[in-house]
C-alpha cells in the first residue's frame, strides 16, 4: 500500500464568519491510499483552533511508517485531522477491495437519508435576517453567534425564518454572564440546542447554571477520553470526524456517548462531500445532524453527495465507501 497526500482549495459561495474570524475558501487535505489496483480516499480539514495547518497535518501523514496496519493507526497518530483522513481513506480502500459497501463491511444497516441543519454565518442582525429569510424553507437553521450582543441577531433570524428550528453555535464566544442573560429567551425563540457557549477548559460554570434547552459540547469534546469531563455540564456531544480522528473512533464515541446518557449531534468542518460521506454513517439515529459543508461551497467534488433541499442522501461508491 502507498499513500499520496494532496492539499486542495474549494471556494466558498459566500464569506463564512464565526466568532474567531472569516474564510473565503475551504482548504482541505486529501489522502489517497492505493493497494492492488484499488484506491481509497479520505478528507480532513486542518483546524487552527487545534494547532493544525495543512503543512503540519501533511507532515504527520507523511511520517507514517511503511506497511502499517489500519488497526495500528490510533497508536501512530493522535485524534485529529491527520488520523481522520487516513482512517477514512483506509475504510474506503477496504470496501473497494472487498467489493461491498462500507456499511456491509462494518456490519451495519444501510444508511437512510438525513435532514441536515443549514448554517448562517455571523453577521449584522439585518444581514442575518435576510439570510434567514432566504433559507426560511429549511427545517433547521444553525446560526453562528458568540459576541456580547447576540440577542438582536437571534431575534432577527427568528423574524426571517419564523417556522425553522434553530440551533445556536457560540463557538466558545460567550461568558457565563452573556449565556445567563440569553438563556431565558431561547425557548421563546424556538432554539432547540446551544453549542459550546463557553470556552473549553473554562466551562465548569455550566454545571451550576440553568440549561433551559440542551447544551452541546463541541470544542470540549474530541474522542471517548473527553466524555468524563462533560458530565453534569453538557447534554449532547457534537461528534466531528476531524476531532475524533476518523470514522473508527467516531462510531465508538457515538456508542459511548449514548451509553453515558448524552445525546448525539454529528457535525462537520467546512469541507467537501468527501468529508461528509463517512459522517453520514455516524449520523444515523443522531438527534441533530449538521453536515451542510458542501452546501456552503461554490464548487464541490464530482461526484458529490446528493442534497435535495436539506435532505442529504448516502454516498455513491464513486465518492466514498
Describe this entry's structure for a reader.
The chain has 321 residues and is α/β, with parallel strands linked by helices. It contains 10 helices and 14 strands. It has helices at 54-62, 73-76, 81-98, 102-105, 125-134, 151-160, 176-186, 241-244, 247-259, 273-282, and strands spanning 2-18, 21-35, 38-44, 114-115, 118-120, 140-144, 165-169, 191-195, 215-217, 236-239, 263-266, 288-289, 307-308, 311-312. Helix 1 (54-62) packs across helix 3 (81-98), helix 5 (125-134) runs parallel beside helix 6 and helix 9 (247-259) runs parallel beside helix 10 (273-282).
Helices, by number, come to: 10
In this structure, how is the largest beta sheet organized?
8 strands, parallel
> Radius of gyration from the CA trace?
19 Å
SS class = alpha/beta
Head-to-tail CA distance between termini: 18 Å
| Poorly predicted parts | none
Give helix and strand order, one letter per element, not per position: EEEHHHHEEHEHEHEEEHHEHEEE
- What's the overall geometry? globular
Strand order, sheet with most strands: 5-6-7-8-9-10-11-12
β-strand number? 14
Helix content: 25-40%
Averaged pLDDT, please?
A: 96
The amount of beta strand, in percent, is 15-25%
Amino acid at each position: 500500500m502507498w499513500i499520496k497526500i494532496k492539499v486542495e482549495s474549494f471556494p466558498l459561495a459566500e464569506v463564512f464568519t464565526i466568532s474567531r474570524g472569516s474564510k473565503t475558501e475551504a482548504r482541505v487535505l486529501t489522502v489517497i491510499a492505493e493497494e492492488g489496483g484499488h484506491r481509497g480516499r479520505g478528507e480532513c480539514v486542518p483546524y487552527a483552533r487545534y494547532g493544525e495547518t495543512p503543512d503540519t497535518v501533511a507532515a504527520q501523514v507523511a511520517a507514517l511508517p511503511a506497511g502499517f496496519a489500519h488497526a495500528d493507526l490510533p497508536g501512530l497518530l493522535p485524534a485529529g485531522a491527520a488520523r481522520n483522513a487516513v482512517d477514512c481513506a483506509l475504510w474506503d480502500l477496504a470496501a473497494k477491495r472487498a467489493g461491498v459497501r462500507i456499511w456491509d463491511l462494518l456490519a451495519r444497516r444501510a444508511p437512510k437519508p438525513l435532514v441536515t441543519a443549514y448554517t448562517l454565518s455571523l453577521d449584522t442582525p439585518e444581514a442575518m435576517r435576510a439570510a434567514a429569510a432566504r433559507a426560511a424553507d429549511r427545517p433547521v437553521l444553525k446560526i453562528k453567534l458568540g459576541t456580547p450582543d447576540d440577542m438582536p441577531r437571534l431575534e432577527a433570524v427568528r423574524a426571517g425564518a419564523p417556522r425553522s428550528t434553530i440551533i445556536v453555535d457560540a463557538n466558545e464566544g460567550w461568558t457565563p454572564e452573556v449565556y445567563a442573560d440569553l438563556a431565558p429567551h431561547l425557548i421563546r425563540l424556538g432554539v432547540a440546542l446551544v453549542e459550546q457557549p463557553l470556552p473549553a477548559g473554562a466551562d465548569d460554570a455550566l454545571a451550576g447554571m440553568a440549561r433551559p434547552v440542551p447544551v452541546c459540547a463541541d470544542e470540549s469534546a474530541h474522542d471517548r477520553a473527553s466524555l468524563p469531563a462533560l458530565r453534569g455540564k453538557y447534554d449532547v456531544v457534537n461528534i466531528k470526524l476531524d476531532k475524533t480522528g476518523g470514522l473508527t473512533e467516531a462510531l465508538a464515541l457515538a456508542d459511548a456517548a449514548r451509553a453515558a446518557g448524552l445525546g448525539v449531534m454529528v457535525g462537520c468542518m467546512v469541507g467537501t462531500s468527501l468529508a461528509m460521506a463517512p459522517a453520514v454513517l455516524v449520523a444515523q439515529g443522531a438527534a441533530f445532524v449538521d453536515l451542510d459543508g458542501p452546501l456552503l461551497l461554490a464548487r464541490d467534488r464530482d461526484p458529490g453527495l446528493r442534497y435535495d433541499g436539506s435532505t442529504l442522501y448516502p454516498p455513491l461508491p464513486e465518492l466514498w465507501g
